[in-house]
Design a protein that fits this description.
Elements lengths: L9 H4 L13 E4 L1 E2 L2 E2 L5 E4 L7 H5 L7 E7 L25 H13 L30 H13 L8 E7 L6 H4 L12 H15 L1 E6 L3 E6 L6 H14 L2 H4 L6 H9 L4 E5 L2
Helix pairs in contact: 3-6, 3-7, 7-9
Length: about 270
C-alpha cells in the first residue's frame, strides 16, 4: 500500500512526541504482524484506558500525518498485537472503485433477489472534500468525530476497553488498511477494498473511522441521510459492505434497518464473524 513517510519511528527516541508537537501519555509502538515484525511501526497505542478528551489531545498529530483512532481491546481478543494484522496483504484503496466493490458484494449476498440499486445520494449539508474548510463547524467531519469519540469514551459507553491510538494514514478511511486490519477477513481478505467504500462514504456522508475492534468497526457520520427514502437507498450499501447488519442485527429488512440504524444516526457500526 502506498503511504506517506511514517513519523512513528521518531517516537522510539521521543516517547512523549514533543518533536511532533505532541504530549503523549505512556504508550507503545506496534510492529507485530501475523507474518512477523513489520519493517516500521504500524501504530502507536496508549497503555491506559481512554477517557473523554483524550481524542482531542491527539488532534495535533494530524499535522504530522498521524490520525487518531480508538482501539477496543476488551472483546476477548486482546490488543492489536494479537489481531493477526497483515499489512503486506493489502492493496491500495485508491486502486478500487467503491461502486464496483459494493456491486460485487451485493450480487454475492443478494444472489438473484434484487438488482444492485446503485450508490445512494450524498447526505444533506455535506460539502465535497476540497470544500470542507468552508463548512459550518457543527458539520465538520473531524470535529464531529471528536464529539462522537468523547461520547464513546464516557463511562457506560459501548466500547469495552477503549485505548487511543495513532496511525500513519492519508485519510481516515485508510486507517484499517494502513495497519493491515483483518477484521472482515471472512467477508473480504483485502481490507483496501473496504477502505475504498469508506472513502466514498467520507465524500458523501462525512464519515470518519472512530473505533476498531478485532472484528468490528464504528464510524462517525457528520451528514447522514435525513429522509426514509435516502436512508433506505443507502441500506443496500451497508448490507453489501457488511451482511451481518441484516443477518444478525435484529432488523430483517432494508427498510427496518434504514429506519433504525441509518436515518439521522450519528454513528454506523459494522461487524464480521
Amino acid at each position: 500500500m502506498a503511504t506517506l513517510p511514517n513519523p512513528l519511528p521518531t517516537l522510539a527516541a521521543d516517547p512523549s512526541g514533543r518533536a511532533l508537537g505532541l504530549s503523549l501519555p505512556a504508550g507503545a509502538l506496534l510492529d507485530t504482524t501475523d507474518e512477523g515484525p513489520w519493517h516500521e511501526p504500524l501504530l502507536w497505542h496508549a497503555d491506559e484506558r481512554a477517557v473523554p478528551g483524550g481524542w482531542t489531545a491527539l488532534e495535533p498529530a494530524r499535522r504530522a500525518g498521524l490520525l487518531p483512532v480508538v482501539l477496543d481491546v476488551g472483546d476477548g481478543h486482546g490488543g492489536p498485537d494479537r489481531w493477526e494484522l497483515m499489512p503486506g496483504e493489502m492493496s491500495y484503496p485508491g486502486d478500487h472503485d467503491a461502486e464496483e466493490v459494493l456491486e460485487e458484494f451485493w450480487e454475492e449476498y443478494a444472489q438473484d433477489a434484487e438488482a444492485w440499486p446503485g450508490l445512494a445520494a450524498p447526505g444533506p449539508r455535506h460539502h465535497a472534500r476540497d470544500q470542507e474548510h468552508d463548512q459550518d463547524p457543527a458539520q465538520d467531519p473531524d470535529a464531529f468525530a471528536t464529539r462522537v469519540a468523547d461520547s464513546l469514551l464516557a463511562d457506560g459507553g459501548p466500547l469495552k476497553a477503549p485505548h487511543l491510538a495513532l496511525v500513519p494514514a492519508r485519510r481516515s478511511a485508510d486507517v484499517p488498511t494502513a495497519i493491515g486490519w483483518t477484521g472482515p477477513a471472512n467477508h473480504e481478505g483485502d481490507t483496501a477494498r473496504l477502505s475504498a467504500v469508506l472513502r466514498s462514504w467520507e465524500d458523501r456522508f462525512g464519515i470518519r473511522v472512530v473505533a476498531l475492534g478485532f472484528d468490528h468497526l464504528l464510524v462517525s457520520v457528520a451528514a447522514p441521510p435525513t429522509t426514509p427514502a435516502d436512508a433506505e437507498a443507502l441500506a443496500a450499501e451497508h448490507v453489501a459492505f457488511c451482511p451481518a447488519v441484516i443477518d444478525q442485527g435484529g432488523d430483517p429488512t432494508l427498510r427496518a434497518y434504514a429506519e433504525h440504524r441509518i436515518l439521522d444516526q450519528p454513528t454506523w457500526h459494522f461487524w464480521w464473524d
